[in-house]
Here is the input.
Amino acid sequence: MSDAAKLGHVAERADHGIKVRVDRMVGLEEGGDAFARQAGGNAKGKIIFTPQG
Here is the structure.
């Protein structure tokens, strides 16, 4: 399944009342810190990696 199809699936679910909680959006260079936060039990949702420009 492509990323676009996965995003469409999430959007469809959101239209029907299902919510996704995002803890933070980070670049790849911040990934280690984000995963350490998650491993420590401090993340309250998903971690999203943003493209670097």
Observations:
- The radius of gyration is 13 Å.
- The chain has two helices and two strands.
- The longest strand covers residues 22-26.
